[in-house]
Amino acid sequence: MEGANHSVVSEFVFLGLTSSWGLQMPLFLFSSVLYVSSMAGNSLVVFAVASNPHLHSPMYFLLANLSFIDLGVSSVTSPKMIYDLFRRRKVISFRGCITQIFFIHVIGGVEMVLLIAMAFDRYVAIFKPLHYLTIMSPRLCICFSVAAWVVGLVHSVVQLAFVVNLPFCGPNVLDSFYCDLPRLIKLACTEIYRLELMVSINSGFISVGTFSILIISYAVIIFTVQKHSSAGCAKALSTLSAHIMVVILFFGPLMFFYTWPYSSTHLDKFLAIFDALVTPFLNPIIYTLRNQEMKEAMRRACRQLLSYRKIS
Questions:
Q1: DSSP classification of residue 176
Q2: pLDDT at 67
Q3: Read out DSSP for 44-103?
Q4: E strand or H helix that includes residue 173
Q5: CA 82 → CA 17, 155, 286, distances in Å?
Q6: Which terminus in the chain has less CB density within 10 A, N or C?
Q7: Could you give the CA distance from residue 27 to residue 24 in angstroms, rounded to a whole number?
Q8: CA gap 285, 289 in Å, rounded
C-alpha cells in the first residue's frame, strides 16, 4: 500500500448540511441552542455528582462518566459544523480530518463500554441488592472507567493505522459536515474493499453485537423480575427505561452508518446531527426525568453555581 507521503490531498472540502442560504439561520439557531444546552446539561450532571456526597455511588459515578463523554460527543464535530454554516468554502486539513476521526471513535468506544458497565450495574442492583456495594466497589468502577478508555483508544488506533497511510490524490470533496471513515476511504486512490470490510467489522458488527446483547440482557432482567412480582417488574422497568432509551439513541445511528449498504446522504446527515447534538442533549434529561434524587442534586448544583457567580 502506498504511503501517506504520496498523497497530494492536503485538505478536504465539506458540502455541509445544505447549499440553501435561506436555511442557514434556522440551522444555526437550532444547532447553537442544542449545543449550548447539551454542554450545560452534561456539565451540570458532572458537577452535581462530584459536589453531592449523596451521589457518590457506582450508578452516579458511571452516569457522570457518561455525561463527561457526551461533552466530547458534542464538541468533536458540532462547533466546526456551526462555524461552517456561514462559510461558502468549508474545508478541513488532512491532519484535522484524521484527528476528528480519531476522537469520534475513541469517544464511541468509551461510551459503548460505559453503557455495558451501566447495564451490569443495574443487573447487580436488581438481582443482588444485598451485595451491591461489595460487587460494585470503587475499584471495579475505576476498572470500568479505565477499560472504557483503553477499548476506545485501541478501537480508534486500529482503524486509523490503516487509514492514515492511504494515498489521496483527488477528488477531496466529502458530502458531509464532518470526517467519517466510510466516506473518507471512498476517496482513496487504492483498492478499498478490504478496508470497508474492516470498518464494517470493527465498527458495524461490534455495534450491532453490543446493542443486541444489551437489549437482550434488559429484556431478560424485566422478564425474570415479572415472573416473581408484577410490582417488581414495574419498578425494574422504571429503572431500566432510561438506560434502554439511551442505548437505542446511541446505537441506532451507529448501526446505520456502518452496516447499512445503501448510502442516503440526507438520512446520513440527519442521523449525524441527531448523534452529535440531539443525543447528548437528551441524555441528561432522560436520566433525570424519573430520578427525584438527581433532580434535587441538579437544583442544588444550580443554586451553588449561581451563588458562586454572585460572590465573584
A1: S
A2: 93
A3: HHHHHHHH-GGG-SHHHHHHHHHHHHHHHHHHHHHHHHHHHTT-SSEEEEHHHHHHHHHH
A4: strand 173-174
A5: 10, 28, 25
A6: C
A7: 5
A8: 6
- Strands 173-174 and 11-14 turn out to be parallel
Within 13 Å of residue 46, how many CA atoms lie on the same side as its CB? Answer: 14
Instruction: Determine the number of helices (DSSP H) and then strands (DSSP E) in the chain.
Output: 12, 3
Alpha-carbon torsion 96, 102, 103, 105, what sign?
positive
For 126, the 3-state DSSP assignment is helix
Q: What is the DSSP letter of 20?
A: -
What are the pLDDT digits (tens) for 32-53? 999 999 999 999 999 989 888 8
In the predicted model, is pLDDT for residue 1 greater than 50? no
pLDDT, tens digit (0-9, with 9 covering 90-100), for 241-267: 888 888 998 998 888 888 776 666 677
Tell me the backbone φ, ψ of residue 163, rounded to 5 degrees: -70, -40
Is there a contact between 76 and 107 (Cβ–Cβ < 8 Å)? yes
C-alpha cell at 113: 463500554
Q: Please give the distance of CA 253 from its chain centroid, rounded to a whole number.
A: 10
Q: Is the pTM of this model over 0.70?
A: yes
Could you tell me which of 146, 140, 148 has the C-alpha nearest to residue 124? Answer: 140
Question: Any residues with CB less than 8 A from the CB of 6 and at least 6 apart, and which?
Answer: 167, 169
Cβ contacts of 118 within 8 Å, gap of 6 or more = 59, 62, 63, 66, 243
Distance separating alpha carbons of residues 125 and 135, to the nearest angstrom: 10
Report the alpha-carbon distance of residue 132 to residue 141 in Å, rounded.
12
What is the C-alpha to C-alpha distance for residues 75 and 207, in angstroms, rounded to an integer?
22
Bond prior to 171 in cis (omega within 30° of 0): yes
Phi/psi for 118 (5° steps) reads -70, -35
